[in-house]
Amino acid sequence: MTAPPSPQPKTDLPPEFAFIRRHFLALAGPAALNLQDDAAVFSPPQGREMVMAVDAMVENVHFLPTDPPDTIGRKLLRCNLSDLAAMGSRPEGWLLAFARPPHITDAWVEQFCAGLAQDQARFGLSLMGGDTTSTSGPLVLSLTIVGSVLPGQAIQRCGARAGDGLWVSGTIGDGALGLRVLQGVEPPLADPTGHLAERYRLPQPRIGLPLHGLASAAMDVSDGLVQDAGHLARENALHVRIQADQVPLSAAARALGPAWQEVCLTGGDDYEILFAVPPEREHQLLSCPSLPTPYGVVPVTRIGQFEAGVPGVSVMDGAGQPMHFKAKGWSHL
Amino acid sequence: MTAPPSPQPKTDLPPEFAFIRRHFLALAGPAALNLQDDAAVFSPPQGREMVMAVDAMVENVHFLPTDPPDTIGRKLLRCNLSDLAAMGSRPEGWLLAFARPPHITDAWVEQFCAGLAQDQARFGLSLMGGDTTSTSGPLVLSLTIVGSVLPGQAIQRCGARAGDGLWVSGTIGDGALGLRVLQGVEPPLADPTGHLAERYRLPQPRIGLPLHGLASAAMDVSDGLVQDAGHLARENALHVRIQADQVPLSAAARALGPAWQEVCLTGGDDYEILFAVPPEREHQLLSCPSLPTPYGVVPVTRIGQFEAGVPGVSVMDGAGQPMHFKAKGWSHL
Question: Less crowded by CB within 10 Å, the N or C end of chain A?
Fold first, then answer.
């Protein structure tokens, strides 16, 4: 047998492989098999159930082309982590589909991945696999998140009963206001500390919120508090009544005055957790309205109550009168 | 307490929810929790490892706007199933991110989902979750596939040794030729039985190919046989020599004559399995070159051999001379 001829085709990697190796290999965990294989392989953590979700973000729909690429990566991961948090589950890994238009430069991708590296370390997970492709349209990012939970401990949207309190973590409305700060509405919205813009760009997924044994139902607030509370109520065949003046607002949001209340209540991009608590479990929370997480103590607030009645949501003002909103919340189609 | 006021906002579902319910609910398995929750929850099959991959398809890049929507859905699922097949693993479920441009009608989505329903039944898996969003660009579909395998039995790309034979399932080149049939090259390519077009639109993922205990390494052929064999060789730090006249072609491909050989060898869209077999395990395959799967007996063919040498691939013609190709294979960036 003769010596092998020169390899043909040449050994340079096709652009796709070089791209993956250059940008994504540093993010890969053991399950990713160096991103060289057809699929990731991992052992599910002993005695736990798997929790999985996918969330896509599209340029000009979910983020602004002028947003810093590192915060786009981090927001993409955090929105998915918020889904895990709502189920009371912990992160294990993630996969990414990246449809790249020509205007997304290597420098952009580098910053995007730097943001992901920072947050995957913070939240204790790593890249398992992915796919890159070209597109003539806007950048489309689809992230699949993989988590786990002890059997039977996933908190679902169904489970609330009439009489349960409606609670929410953190503050509501900052993200929606932050978007308007960044979009530059007229007259300009005051955001002297940058808190609102920061909350739009970098939501805080409530990973580790101890919902098991406390909440009868939970979901994350991403499409607007009022709309999402309506979903939670309808999926439990209940009515939920929200007291608008109980909804927790940040100092930055309060400073803008009551004209912006509707945006806070319906605007979306909160990534807080909305959850139902049976009355017998509310006493402790009412006396100390906060919950511990590995990322700090998270304030929680009782904003309403589930009751029998027409399935859906109503919002009452401080005088006990029903409020009406122009916006119904965010729909993705 | 007064009776609850009329729900506000109204109880009609936002378009996104109605869209998901109308089209995707029928595909959902138990893990999907009726597609109402933030994430899917499932128990990993006892004593098995999880296998996961994501593949995206973009309109005008991976499929033609004129392709029937049902075959687009089926091809998307089958390409992902091919990744599982290459790892010797079995399907468990899938998630979908759907970035929908305005020109994708409800009727289109209905046919798309009908195709998915047909194939998820055929291959024994169900929808676990997903996300839908709007886009101003082309339709982007990202499918995450979830499979499982007995611990340690996943077949990876690394593991081949010098002396191992290079084998491939089925036939090579039909998909690439089928694309050219459908694109309408001049002069037109003969496809009297429609076999080539069918193979482009509906690859046959080799789920259940019994690679464990047989193959030392495997991958699926999606970007062109020559390029993918080069990857397999380089990832094992080996040279692989392919005998072009041993590469199995369908009767429809052979009928087109030798002018189309290069397209077959480099064109991609095969979704066959390329695998390495140590010499001591080849005897049985050489005497009966086929393998059983739940979807029928699959012919397999020895097309070359791994050897020490410059990492990469060479392709020899029937006279033992190295062949040179214009096309290097398919890159997605």
Answer: N
